[in-house]
Amino acid sequence: MTFLSDEALKDELNARGYRSTPQRQKVLSIFMELAQGEHLSAEDLHKILEEDGERISLSTVYRTLHLMVYMGLLRELELAEGHKHYELNRPLKDHHHIVCVHCNTTLEFVEHSVAKIGERTAQASG
C-alpha cells in the first residue's frame, strides 16, 4: 500500500464518491505517525483526536475507520473478544499478535515456525 499525501487522499476519496475532510486527513496522519506494530482502537483514536482539539464524535471515528479499511488504507484486527484494533496497511512480513487477557495489551511478533504450521495446515486441508 502506497501512503497518500493529503492531496492524493482527497483525490482518492473524491474518485470513490466521498468527501475529503480535515478529520479524515487527521485520522490517516495519526496512523502514519504510529510506530510499526502499534495498533489503535476506535476509543484510543477518539481520545487522541479530542486531546488534539478535534471536535469529533465516536460514531464519526468508527465510520472513518470503516471507510479507510474499505479503501485499503487501514487493516482491522480483532485481537481479543470484542476488541477491534486498527493499524496502517503497510507491507509487512507475516506477523502475529499476542494479547494479554488481563490488560488487553497487544504485542506484535514475527515467528517463522507459526507461519510454517499455518502453511502445512493449509496444504493438508486442500
UniProtKB/TrEMBL annotation:
CDD domains noted in UniProt: Fur_like (cd07153)
Alphabetic keyword roster: Metal-binding, Zinc
Zinc-finger recorded as keyword: no
Cofactor: Zn(2+)
GO molecular function terms listed in the Swiss-Prot or TrEMBL record: DNA-binding transcription factor activity; transcription cis-regulatory region binding; zinc ion binding
Sequence positions that bind Zn(2+): 100, 103
Gene Ontology BP term (one): negative regulation of DNA-templated transcription
Cofactor: how bound: Binds 1 zinc ion per subunit.
Protein name as catalogued: Transcriptional repressor
Phylogenetic placement of the source organism: Bacteria, Bacillati, Cyanobacteriota, Cyanophyceae, Leptolyngbyales
